[in-house]
C-alpha cells in the first residue's frame, strides 16, 4: 500500500485554443474536369440541334408562304380565264355577229355562206 499511498499527481495538459481561422476540411469535387467538358459538349450539341430545327422550320414556313402565294396567283389566273371564256362565248353568238354585220352595212347572201364545223 505504500506505493498506493503516494499522492497522484495529475498531469494537466494545456487546453488547445481553437483558432477562428481554422480552415474546414477540403471537400471532394463533385464534377471533374472531364465531366465538365462532356457536359459542355453535350449542351453545345443540344443547342446546335435546336438551332438546326428552328432554321429548318423557318425554311419550311417561307416555302409554305411562297407556295400559297403561287396558288393564289394560279387561282386568280384560272378565274380570269374562266371569265374570258364566258365573254368569248357571249361575244361569238350568232345574233351578236349578225347585228354587228348589219351595223356595218353587210347583207346575208345565201350563196356565199359556207358552214364551218363547230369546235
From TrEMBL:
Membrane topology: Single-pass type II membrane protein
InterPro entries: Cell_div_FtsL (IPR011922), FtsL/DivIC (IPR007060)
Biased composition (Polar residues): 1-22
GO biological process: FtsZ-dependent cytokinesis
Alphabetized Pfam families for the sequence: DivIC
Renumbered residue ranges of the record's region Disordered: 1-30
Compartments where located: Cell membrane
Recorded superkingdom: Bacteria
Example of a GO cellular component annotation carried by this entry: plasma membrane
Alphabetic keyword roster: Cell cycle, Cell division, Cell membrane, Coiled coil, Membrane, Transmembrane, Transmembrane helix
Transmembrane segments: 37-54
Keyword Transmembrane annotated: yes
Coiled-coil intervals: 60-87
Entry's family note: Belongs to the FtsL family.
Function: Essential cell division protein.
Protein name as annotated: Cell division protein FtsL
Species the sequence originates in: Planococcus plakortidis
Organismal lineage: Bacteria, Bacillati, Bacillota, Bacilli, Bacillales
